[in-house]
Amino acid sequence: MELQWLEDFLEIAATRNFSTAATARNISQPAFSRRIKSLESWIGADLIDRSTYPVQLTRAGNMFLPGCQRLVREAYRLRTDCRNVAGESSAMLTFTSLHTLAMYFFPKWISSPLISRMPLRTSMHAADFLESVDHLCSGQCDFCITYVHPDGPPVLEGGPFETLLIGKDRLILVSGTDENGRALFDLDVPESTEIPYLAYSWSDGYIGKLATLIQSRWRRPLNLSTVYQSALADGLKHMAVAGRGVAWLPQICVAEAMRQGQLVQIGGQQMSLEMEIRIFRRAGAGSHDSDALWQHLKDCAELPQYKSTFEAALDAA
Questions:
Q1: Closest by CA position to 214, among listed 227, 200, 228, 203
Q2: Cross-strand pairs, 264
Q3: Using an 8 Å Cβ cutoff, are 228 and 244 in contact?
Q4: 3-class SS at 223?
Q5: Are 266 and 120 in contact (CB under 8 A)?
Q6: What family does the Swiss-Prot or TrEMBL record give for this protein (predicted)?
Q7: Which residue of 25, 174, 215, 253 has the fewest CB atoms within a 10 Å radius of its CB?
Q8: How far is the C-alpha of 2 from the C-alpha of 29, rounded, in Å?
Q9: What is the CA radius of gyration of the chain?
Q10: pTM for the predicted model, two decimal places
Q11: Which parts of the chain have pLDDT scores under 50?
């Protein structure tokens, strides 16, 4: 029996819908259903009545629900107590985030005056979007930092998670430049003209979907021809600098290349999208240091200088 099975059961008990619960748990519906089946097999009784819509708990499910809630609470409380007894307050805080944020945002953010005053020891696991979210869901890290946009795919909504806004960035369309600093590629070309496109691979799952959202705003369909794919924004950036095509990239990632004249933004603001940078954690008590950092971030969010810090960073980029 796994703790995540219990958390899955609590989610389906709250939503009464397998699709909604699977989305909240950030896994596919078939995988979510298999985990519920595994829990029922371990219990030895059906917990969900799947013959109704919305689904209902069986008599066994209703009996199991309050005990399941206590088990999950006690598991995390016991972990916190053990960590505190073992001196967890001196252990590292573990973060996971997108590669772009790990490289270009996290070092400056954790070193900013409002954050660096805390004596923290940290470690970072950089990954794609799905792996980052899964790391937090499975308890493999204390915090997850990722991009969020209200029209993008939902990020840890409806689950046992808390979130805070810690920054902003912008997704922009860029092109390499010629020797005179002019864009190598332009969107104002005949419809029959193919524009070489540097695309996010399927595993990214978030920025690629935001890029598709931006494309839908253009006055006519873009004749983009994918010539290269990568899950890494940095990889797409270097291909754009090399003149291989156009790419939607976080502004924080390309700011330096744009200052050096290696890249230019094309398409204007219509081809861009502002994104929030958010930090997530599991709801409830964590370690001494993770709780202290979270409370500090909540306190900082009320300060005018905290808001101006990330807005100035976006303007500077």
A1: 200
A2: 175
A3: yes
A4: coil
A5: no
A6: Belongs to the LysR transcriptional regulatory family.
A7: 215
A8: 18
A9: 23
A10: 0.70
A11: 89, 203, 312-317
